[in-house]
Design brief:
Elements (H helix, E strand, L loop, with lengths): L2 H5 L10 H14 L8 E2 L16 E2 L6 H14 L6 E4 L2 H13 L2 H11 L4 E9 L2 E7 L4 E5 L6 E11 H6 L12 E9 L2 E4 L3 E2 L13 E2 L7 E5 L19 H22 L2 E5 L10 E2 L13 E5 L4 H21 L15 H7 L1 H32 L4 E3 L2 E3 L7 E4 L8 H16 L5 H11 L5 H15 L1
Parallel strand pairs: 1-2
Antiparallel strand pairs: 3-18, 4-5, 4-12, 6-7, 7-8, 8-9, 8-10, 9-11, 13-14, 13-15, 16-17
Helix pairs in contact: 3-5, 3-10, 7-8, 11-12, 12-13
Organism: Swingsia samuiensis
Protein name: Phage portal protein
Length: 472
Amino acid sequence: MDWLSLQQRYPMPSGVSPRALRLLSLKRVLNGTQYDVLPYPFSLERSAAGEYIPLSNRRPAVRCNLCRTVVDDSVSLLFGDTHWPDLVASDERVAEAMNIFAEQTKLASLMMQAATLGAVGSVAVLFEVSNGAPKLSVLETAYLTPYWDEHSGELIKVEERFIIYGRDLVRQGYSIAEDLFGAQFWWQRTWTLMECQIATPWLVGEEGGREDNSRSMHHGLGFVPIVWIKNLGSSREGVPDGECSFERAIDTVIEADYLLSQAGRGLKYGSDPTLVLKTGNFVSNGLAHQGGVASALTLPPEGDAKLLEINGNAAGAVLAHYRELRQLALEQLHGNRAHGDRISAAQSGKAMELMCQPLIWLVDRLRHSYGESGLLPIYRMACRFSNVLEQGLKLGDQFIKDLPLCRMSLRWPSWFASTDPELNSLVQSLVTAVENGILSRETATKMYATASGNIDPGKEWNALQKWVFHKT
């Protein structure tokens, strides 16, 4: 069974677009629930009527979850504790305010969540303000439809629309007749440049979509408070989604899951083989017995007994085949193919980069998607909020107003920290270069600060100048 066949097993909600169905299917793979739609466990080979159950109707007993593993590895290397980028702004006031903003909104954790959910193709970040304080939340995009301005490329409208049951609407405060609790309703919300419009829910199959004035809101911002992020840096105009991080390897992962499941069944058969009795004219009290080596048997002279065993060499062949499938899947996913059990000693930062080079290439593309096209637009939107709100944006204990839309960029740290021998070797090389007039002391200081993990080498040079000045 391949990915296309498995997708056809998923239920198709009425009124859902093909794009939404694709994103929802990919989300199943990301969550590890892609096989839950299959009706039988892998160990059940025959139905109650004695009919053989095909493998395509059985859930695999082993799930390697390579797709989610590579996504988690790439997100950790993208926005982990030691990989969070530093904001460089031409206005110091903006840089200080955005550092407070990132800490207050727990932006690092939110961006890791966004990068994980966005691996299916896209993700959206909703920017809200409550009593002046910023609040960010991640929106899945399966039920969202964005619209951009053809000339400026600015987001001008985002529409959210999905089906909800009447009983769920009652929990949200809607007045729904009791006989419609099980009925399906359309629920719609639309963000525009000036408003957040919420429509009155209407029954599926009927006309509706009238605005609910009691729940809608006129925000008057002049921009849509949503940052739309396309995965893997897709820049095609009018296309809401980028490339999925793991879709190309799903077929290979499915093959590997079923292969390992069958290997497990084979090993169980080998440990407890089926006993076949040939009784001749002797009438047995039953059919074939399971676990035949557990007790001695007495047979008539013309009888015979044998075990249906599986050759043990097959297990090694299966595992070798799985290793090839795993390597192929990791190549398609650009995952880390280095084995931890083969590393006998601590590795240098450069050696770790070489071992994880395919993963680094993947994360390098993700930096464009979630850094330049995700994190920086969020910072710019915070500055726009400080200009639009009457009191400004509440960051920390004070309201900050009129932050300029200055030039911003991200300074990313090194992929892996340098080891002490690497730093010692670098120090000796830099000292030699400075003494021979090949390199300036400022450049050498900044190079060492960058290698040692200092995100802002300029501050290190300023601190060194102050220390030398006070010492003299």
